[in-house]
Amino acid sequence: MSIEAIAAQSIDTVTFYPAHPPGELDRSAVSAAFHFCDASNMASFPLFPCFPVEIQLAIWAFAAVLDPEPEVCLVWPSTLETWDASPDRPADEPALPFIVDTDWPAVAHVCCVAREAAFKSGRLRYSPLAGFAVPYRHFMPAIDTLYCGQLQYVALCLFLNRPENAHIARDLRRLALEIAAPFPLSNVAEVIRKSVIDLRTLSLVFPGTMNLSSPTESFHRPTRRCKLRNIAGDSLDEITIAQVLDSREGKARPMTLRKYLDHQRAALDRHVREGSIHGDEGTAWSTNDNSFSGLEITAQTFVEYHCNQEEQWIEVCRDRLLSSPDLDMMRRPLYVWPADRKNPEEHRVIDDDSRLYSVEEFMEGWADSW
């Protein structure tokens, strides 16, 4: 978008100085400022200081929220129970609204005036781990990915299948599942066929670009701002899973990552066909092909931002395994009881269950809560 267009749109969003409401600003004055220059061919814009301060602030505020980056929304809490709902004990559900961490707006680094405008137009919430407020925005299903871990999988499937959450399910385009999560795979097959009918990408998230002994090796999601990185190319044929259970053969066998993705796709298709699962027409399932031909299935892993590393986005989840043959104990994040859950728009809630506990410590926490 050109600077002229930004300036013109910004006139309608001026809220900093009520003494000069948007209707009193002269659009012709803004257009005249561009009469002597071609903004599209300029490396800088020397006329910007000539604008009234209200327009300058509005332009900074408008630029602060332009072109948001795709982010990962981590479903929270990390542990969701699947007890039967009752009037005294409602179903355990993800905290709403869905929130994503964001980078600090680039304009916040320009000058103090731009920084003030960016902070006023953006959103901040307090992070106990960082010790200060950090930026966030609401989940945007058109570009963001919703991530679900093993300890949330069943509850999230129930959540997405409820009629009152249909608007969330129908808008969802990218869903990522911890590799240990989709057991049984039938749950996610039915959710996509019945509710998340326009899903475009289903990602299976691995703890790292590493060999696994089993697809049931679970891990805890990152603590800091994170992204999902594709595992692609030769890595799909080099990474292996030692023991993959084939339900038709009744035995386990090794598979490369590429073969495992094909194996899971075939299992999804087979469950819908053999179970005669029906739903509204969408883009994920093709009634002509009788398969999820409109669904891309990928392998990904988490990378976390570290400002003191040469490579700023690095893999971290291989150090956050919950269960593995290489661990001499099982670990779990602490369960956050509904009464203790804070507002995700005011508090970075994923900080509250970022620490891992041994199973003994975990069970002690449950005992103290009863």
Can you describe what's shown?
- The protein has 370 residues and is of the alpha/beta class.
- The chain has two domains: 3-67 and 105-125, no CATH class; 72-94 and 139-324, no CATH class.
- It has ten helices and 16 strands.
- The strands form five sheets. Strands 1, 5, 6, 7, 9, 12 and 13 form a seven-stranded mixed beta sheet that branches. A three-stranded antiparallel beta sheet has the order 2-4-3, with helices on one face. It has a two-stranded antiparallel sheet with strand order 8-14.
- The longest helix is centred in the last third of the chain and has 18 residues, at 257-274.
- Mean pLDDT is 83; it is low at 10-27 and 366-370.
Tag the structure with descriptive keywords.
370 residues, alpha/beta, 2 domains, 3-stranded antiparallel β-sheet, 16 strands, 26% helix, 20% strand
